[in-house]
């Protein structure tokens, strides 16, 4: 782990590690989530397993939070090709993961309502709350648009030469597969980890000069700590 006083090395390390840890937390949260694990009719499931819901929602919340440094790191690497596109996609991705993080609080309300009321009634009240226009347009739609932004950011990163073309497809297939389509939490999580993790590993393997964009014209002087300006005589 680079020193906190090393701006290049530490930021590169933080972004790379977060891109690996975030999908691992996502997999753990999805596996613990009793509704995702059971599938089918999930009425009352959150009320029956409140401890699992608490752990799952917390893990999923932090999986989205930790994507923020990773996304910022991806934006940082888009310098010469597709810069405007990368900024727009990155901004959309950041807004999306923040909203998905906030939506994880809903699991706690589902769990509490399904315990305090008959399960079907508790689930109905929770779904009515999430059907409120503020929840729909303020959280849910921006969240899914953020996944689109993450996909586009991955394409922009590949276009800039800092990631494989298949990575954004794996990320979006993994997340959507877990949340929307019945491909299974394990398969979806592994796809997400593969796509995000390969980008994170590339960041960790970069030199500080490559991270700073100095590989061609401004190499870091030998013996000078990364991020510090070398003095010349």
From TrEMBL:
Transmembrane segments: 12-32, 53-78, 84-105, 141-160, 166-195
Keywords on record: Membrane, Transmembrane, Transmembrane helix
UniProt superkingdom: Bacteria
Protein name: DUF4386 family protein
Upper lineage: Bacteria, Bacillati, Actinomycetota, Actinomycetes, Streptosporangiales
